[in-house]
Protein 1
Amino acid sequence: MNISFDTSAYPQIKPLSFGNIESSIEMNSLYYTENGKPKVFVAGEFHFERYPRELWEEEILKMKAGGIDVISTYIIWLFHEPKKGCYRFDGDFDDGYFLALCKKHGMRVIMRIGPYCHGELRHGGLPDFVFRLPYNRSDNPKYLSLAEKYWEKLYENTKDYFDGETVVGIQLENEYVKGFDHLLTLRRLAEKVGFKVPVFTVTGWGFTFDNNDLQGTYGGYPARPWAQHRHSMPVQGNFTIRKNYHTCDGIGTDVIDYSSAEKPVKNVIQPNFTCECGCGNQVTEHRREIISAKDAYGVPFATVANGCNWLGYYMYHGGSNPRGGLYQESRRTLSPNNLPVIDYDFQAPLGRFGLQRKSYHMLRNLNNCLQYFGDGLAKMHPFYSSKFDITDETDAITPRICVRADENGSGFLFASTYERDKKMPPLEDVKITVKTSCGERNLPVLNMKPDEFLMYPFNIRLGNTAFDYITAMPIAHYEKNGITTFFFKITGGHAAEYSVNNRAGTFSVSNSPEIIYNEFDKKTRIVVMSEALSEDFYLFGNKVVFTNAVIYENEGLIIEYKRGDYCTIDGKSISLETPGVNTGVRLKNRKPFHGRYSSFLFSPGKRQYYTLTAENLAFGESVVDYILDFKFEGSALQMYYNGSLVNDFFNIDGSHTMSLKYFKDELLNGRLDIVTAPFAKRHPIYTEAGFKFNNAALKAVRLTAIYSKKLI
């Protein structure tokens, strides 16, 4: 098979502006710049209102360690003005304090101020008194007056951070397809209130753009839990590398009728910007899809291949709805989907309790690549082979492959053989020719097994060495004592090869923290890691860290670890002491009880009831948490403390994990009462784990102590 890419038709770049304040961040029709230097921004969605205030800083730092440099967050009207004129901007709703923490740690912010958010919330996050208006989400003066008063209170609490550098973007509305007029009205209203940012954005679903006032943003998810049927999904296109593919028409079809969307005629080229690049999915009551690490990686990988220069994940960090109310969307509030009352884990890389999934580590490599090598990648436009043009998003046969290249002929090759729930054919003996402004470049013959991702550079200069290609993915670099060390990882199952002046060679590959340096000149050395080792790799400044524990930087390195974890810093093994603890938990059957929200278990089957107590539960300087793992055969569970719902969960894979520090006060002062409900034959639900009917058994299987230590 022969594939050629012609990168000589590099697009003309035009300056653009979507903001109203001077900033170090600027943009043109292809990419963004920071202090004049091209940059790919990596944004992770985290809803601070759905997380305890005292833990915000730690979670911000976990996100930063994961390669995130912008936090995007809904400002949820329903939380901040639950009753007309009664505003809440304190405690877990103190957005000013959250912004102060972000500024402290150099994290920029996009505020998604609505008024409407969606966010799997009741009435899309609109307070009830607003939702009841006959013409909400429109230019109705009554609606705009209420929104203006709310925004004025919001601005008053956050105005110090609209400096062009902390809050760098505002998203107006969300999932709106009824025309630009209302969106432009909201921008004028936001500016009247005082909001000043480098970029105003809107979700671009159903739109092309005929003005420079608003940046369109896009998205796509690994699955569609909002689909209203109960069978498996066909190929959806979100993992596809193909021309002009920004967003999936299947996104949000539970609330959007794309056929009725107004579409302006004129199209203005804008940078490729995502606000909802799905690295997880929320679980609905009727669909229980399991999002694997490769699912979570596959959508952003294809998005980057297709030219994305602002990668915005949704959700990067899960959370919980506030206790004491019904804030979630449900069919009782006119939504087509039933969701848990509290749980908003979203199967995110950092889950509801801040626990890391495998997807966190896979995506960290991609994020770091964008951070460290984005100055080159940002200028690279995507080019495709006409021989393998994919026009049908359900196509799971045609090779998924493209290059991104700049006007000087430097670029990256991208290829994927991954599709969720489908086995794609392998790529075999693919001969690749790239035509550039500097002549043709023949790349190594490509062979990829199914379920793999490949990304590697060609025509790249590292230090004083110009490489024809390096068949490994770059993820980081640092300079020390005049020597620059570049870190790469094996990609797509391809051997780690390189070529300099058309002379090929092979890298030595590091499979353990005792890394192997490949020397090229007096000022350049390259480390190529196995895929497994790369998932333990961190770079903090010029300190090289390998660990399978949680680590982040806060005036030194902080590590949170369990028995059996390891850590090395610059090749030196770090002792991770795990003093014995005698904490235990007891899960016992109990008599049935009435839970206030037990109807939200949505199961007609026979329920089981338990109590959970902790013995010798102790938190201190070294022990910071206990992770409790359950086996669970039922459909859903709820946990109550003194009659108040504190935890719930829709089962997807037969397990449930909870962090006890989030329930410390309840367990120290008493017990948690648990009710479980089974999957019932007369209430069909789509599942991927093969659950049994009429069984709601819960079993505590493991309690793991988590320790903390400051390293340096």
Protein 2
Amino acid sequence: MFLSLSVRAWWSVKGKSLDAYVAFGNSEDTESHLYYPLWEGGGIMAAPATRQVTTAPELRHGALTLSEATVTGLSNMAPAMSLFFAVSFIAGSVGAAIPFIFLLAMIGILFTANSLAQFARIYPSAGSFITYITTSFGPQIGTVLATFLMVGYAVAAGAVYAVLGGWTADVLARDLGIHINWLIVMFVLLAAFEVLLVLGVQVSTRAALVLFLFETIVLLVLGIIMVANNGSHLSATPFAPPSGTALTGIATGFALAIYSFVGWEASAPLAEETSNPRRNVPIALLIAVIVLAAIYVFVTYAVVIAYGVGHVHKLASDLTPFATLAHIYFGPLRGLVDIAGITSISASMLALTNTQGRILFHGGRAGIFPSFLGHIHPRFQTPWVALITYGVMVVVAVLVTMAWLGAAKLANDPFTIYGVLGTFGTLPLIIIYALTSVALIVYTARHSHEHFNPLTHYIAPAVGFLVMLAPAWSFFQTTTPPFDRVAEITLLLFAFALVYGLIIAYTRPQAAARVGEAIEGVEKARGLAEV
């Protein structure tokens, strides 16, 4: 999504053992139970022996089906947006082997997704990464990384908000002759989407589904037309490892392909609102990665064939390849590609705000973030305060970046802001992905459970951790300002998270401990814990 890219590109249980939990409160009042993990050894805090009964705020249990949870992950990855900005740069790194690189990236991401899926199978939680890292490493580390994750999410999401305003404003000006400042467009769309998000997880998820289906249909139809019109030039070369390409080029292409999958984890924070979460959330995570990979592989194959296997240098030098291809193959309907860009970014905005707002809500509910973030709308059962606050955080990230870029006269270019925020916000996510794989290994070593499998609980997460080293490494290879400051900015973000997290962990230890809770009393009473 970034680094070597130009500044205009950025560019995602049945068998649940309750031995590890202790219930507090009246044993006959299952509606008010909270089940707390009993951490063992390693300096990790154990739950207190007695505790006053608390009734945690409830999200709407069972509101989402498996398909709806899956669509959230697919929407968050935004295939059209990722392809529009990434294909040329991947072509510059690996030539015609773009589909091969995406297949390789899919395999790597599946190893990483396995870690989150295994945790979700044990105990689903709106806290997602926060819950699982805390459970494995303890409340102190969990609180620090929870803060780091939310800051990273807000910065990365700023890229999506900015490009939504910029892309939409460009389309309005170019296709309709309507000229509106991109910031105004961004604020209007943000307000409209916040209404959808507050109205209910079903409403916003189904809106994201419609938007995702539009972009997918446009991409697939364009791909089919390109393949059909170039039938005599079909080749298996794009599926073979690139020949004559330096290892650094392959590593860069692989990293760019990995970045295109960022957002795959979006189904996990919806666990408390997904029916049969121990079964459906893990399936949704894995299906989303596989389906998106299929879209990437087919569409990029069609693009390579359309440009010609022997002329990939033309693709690499074209910063707007899909606009070029739409003009050739869609003719008067080429505006559909522009609209697909809008729907892709919009669906991603809905999905990311929905899921990341719930992680913020979980932190507020636990007490490591301000408690008002843990409020739920009495009618719609959505974490409306957290959703709105998250939107404000993202807008602040955009405005701060504009102020920072002001000296370079780049503040009013949303695509530059997209590149900067995408770059600086994604590295924290990559780090969290890697640590989640380590957390699964640590958790498995400490807790036995009937789903244990050495392949899925030790080998796969180890591979997942190693896979994340490639995109992390690529962040430090650019010398192009301002992307050459990614390490410095990341350290600053982590320093803020470290100070805040440790203050909370040591001044409010009970709140820090609650970050790793699974809110399962109501779930168990309603029979949702069974697969």
Protein 3
Amino acid sequence: MTFILFLLFLLLLSLQPAYGGEHPFLYGYEAFKEGRYQEALSRLDSLQEKDILYEYALYFKGLTLLKMGDYRRAERTFRTFLERYPDSVFRTRATLKLAETLFLKGDMEKARSTLKGLERESWEAMYLMARGLEREGDMDGAFDIYLRLWRDHPWEAKGVDEVVRRFKERGYTISPSDQVRRIENLYRAMTGAIEKGKIKDRAISELKSLDLSALGRDLLMRAGRLSYRLGALSFGRKIFQALLRMVKGDERAEALYYLSLICYRKGERGCAETFLKELITSFPDYRTKALYLLSRLRKDEGRLQEALSILEGLYRDGSSSPAVIWDLAWVNYTLKRYAESIRYLEVLKGFPSARDKALYWLGRIHLKMDRRRGMAFLRELVASGRVSYYTFMAEERLRAMGRWYPEGPLDLKVDGLAGSGTGPFKRAKVLVELGLSDLARDEILKRLEGMKDPLERLKGIHLLEEIGAYYDAIGLSTPYLERAGNPLKTLYLRYAYPRGYREEVYRKARASGVDPLLVYAVIREESHFHPRLTSPAHAVGLMQIIPSTGRYLARIEGRKAPDLFDPEENIALGVAYMNRLLKDFNGNIILALAAYNGGPGNLRRWLDVKEGLEVDEFLEEVPYDETRRYVKKVIKSYYIYRLLYRDG
């Protein structure tokens, strides 16, 4: 552990800034942003080529000249920049600006030549090409590119919507196929996006505006799948019911299956069963999926013997999916058929993805019959070196029995370090010192591309954390946690599980009596520390608070209407909410987290139905898959935070 801290000290030492707080680039950049172009040009021109920020000065000089309408000098500046700095973070943007300059000069052929090949990596290049064609009067060619942008880049290329609308007023048309493909691309854009809620709203709005009568069977099926994935269940039902009247064979089977899923998600069990029965009797290829969903229906209804009979039939027929095996183990456990449950858990243990769950429940069952054997399974799980919800629960149970030992599952040994490299982040460190965090972030991410040296990568990730780019630091660190034998795993772990906004979190959490590390676990899993993240359900900010909940919390806390994008306000309300839930559920972290995700009203209904269960049993019975997964993810993060920062 001492060696780890020494390494961190050396890492921090190597990142000490090399420049003071004043630099001519800073003044030139600020003048440019404020529209004082003559002053910006003077400041940027004052930098010498040997200056570490000369590359940046040259790029912004080109932008300044372009803004001033001096196209000849702008062209020359951008060409010089591209010749000297082919690996610059601004390479693509400088190429686009050069092409824009050429278009404005009227050099259409040179502009197109500059953009050649770039359209594959930049939608802005396509947009410029379309503008050039429109300027030359080639409206058909321009519309073809605008349409591709509208269809394939529906979220990034926001300004194209208005252009396409203008072309439609001139008589240009968009095919139903392009409309459906655009919505599919909107759905894909939600992955990794910050504004998930807005993208989802746009996708659903455009989906519901489709003229279904103009869609053929294939497009209707695609629209139906999108409806289900986006949660527009009633609209999806309408589409799949229309499909049932026009399709046969596999297409009918798919429509029936989606209808059964929609009914199941809406809680309409009779409707779901009707569609499942047709699938089971008429479509052998869908029989396994349909029977498994029927077993879940029976389980939800409390008809456990029927659920068990269906699952046993699936298992006999060769279904060896972890989901089926787990359900067999769990239903047998619920029926107190412990020997049968153990038999299936031993099979489940062979699946790496389910090993921790199997070991934990093997331990739990054996504790009922043979305390020593039960503890052996729990100890095996804790000693496995894996970190999961189930490891945490095993450790807590051993602790309660007085059999917990403090050595956590993390291997804190560090040896075989790679070389420190040549310091590729010097320019980024200067930008950080000057307070230009946005420019520094892009510079760091550019230098990290393809970097092999893990210690050099840590320097870049540390700089990202230093400027508050925790979201990026987490994304870059997490892949290294899965690499077996990585000697720097623990260092990467600290950046994958950071303590951002430390003053606000500790102050608010301690004042409310909430463990700050639990707050960090919630923030980490809710938003990865991105303060402007919005979820598909429109939860906002670091702790992903629904606006209506935020207003309610603000009112009872005596606050004005909250700005949930503000980290301090979001943390204050999120901690207050967590404190309230912990009090409502007697300090039980698992129940409080389930209420945080699924809503306290839903949780109370579930508790009424599942009365008498221990908390770990109850969580396995929670009917919302999302809530079960959420609680387990947050508990895993909480476990890691406690291991990393147990000393405060």
